[in-house]
Design brief:
Order of helices and strands: HHHHHHH
Oligomer: single chain
Structural class: mainly alpha
Radius of gyration: 24 Å
C-alpha cells in the first residue's frame, strides 16, 4: 500500500511513474496512518471485560433490570402523547458470543450516555459498573473567546434542545429495548450451558 519512495531518479520515465504513484495517493503516509487507525479503532472502542457471564446476569437481576424498567416508565411518562418514529439507523444487536455480547452492550450503553437524557442516567451508571468498562471521553477544551460569544445565543439553543428532546427520548427508549434483548439473550445462553 505505502510502497512508493520519494527519491530523485535520473530516468524521466521513472520520475513520471513516481509522480503518478504519488498522485494516486498510494504512497501517502496519511492514508497508511488512517487505514491503521481504522483497523485498530474497533479494538480500542470495545470493552474487554473479564467478568463471568453469571455475574453479569446477577447484576442484571439485582440492579440493571430495575433501572431499565424505571427508565422505560419515566420515558413513557415524558412522551405521553408523542409517538416515536422508526429509527433510521439500526442499533447494534447482541450475539450469542459472550465477548461480542459485552462489546455490544457496552456500545449501546455509551450511545445512551452520549444522548444524556436524565431518565437513563441510572441505567448507564449501573451497566458500566456491571461491565467495569468506562466509555471513552472526548478531551475537554479550554473556553475560548468564540465560545464566550456563543453564550449570547443561549435562548435560541435552549429552544432547539426542547425540540430535540423527544427524539432523544425515543432513541433512548429504542436503546433500552435493545439492552433488554441483550440481557434476555444472556439469560438464555446461561440456561442452555
Amino acid at each position: 500500500m505505502c510502497c512508493c519512495r520519494l527519491v530523485p531518479f535520473e530516468d524521466k520515465h521513472l520520475q513520471r511513474r513516481e509522480h503518478h504513484c504519488y498522485k494516486r495517493h498510494i504512497c501517502n503516509p496519511l492514508l497508511c496512518i488512517s487505514l491503521l487507525v481504522l483497523l485498530l479503532l474497533p479494538l480500542s472502542l470495545s470493552c474487554d471485560s473479564k467478568r463471568p457471564p453469571k455475574e453479569l446476569q446477577e447484576d442484571y437481576k439485582m440492579i440493571v433490570e430495575t433501572d431499565i424498567n424505571k427508565a422505560n416508565e419515566n420515558i413513557s411518562n415524558l412522551l405521553q402523547n408523542s409517538s416515536c418514529p422508526a429509527l433510521k439507523q439500526q442499533l447494534h444487536n447482541c450475539t450469542a458470543d459472550i465477548r461480542e455480547f459485552v462489546s455490544s452492550l457496552h456500545l449501546l450503553t455509551c450511545k445512551m450516555r452520549k444522548l444524556s437524557t436524565s431518565p437513563t442516567d441510572e441505567v448507564v451508571r449501573s451497566i458500566l459498573n456491571s461491565l467495569r468498562c468506562p466509555c471513552l471521553e472526548k478531551p475537554t477544551k479550554e473556553p475560548t473567546e468564540r465560545l464566550k460569544k456563543k453564550t449570547a445565543k443561549r435562548p435560541r439553543r435552549n429552544q432547539l434542545k426542547t425540540k430535540r428532546e423527544p427524539k432523544k427520548l425515543c432513541r433512548s427508549k429504542a436503546i433500552l429495548s435493545a439492552m433488554t434483548r441483550c440481557y434476555q439473550m444472556l439469560n438464555s445462553m446461561l440456561m442452555t450451558s
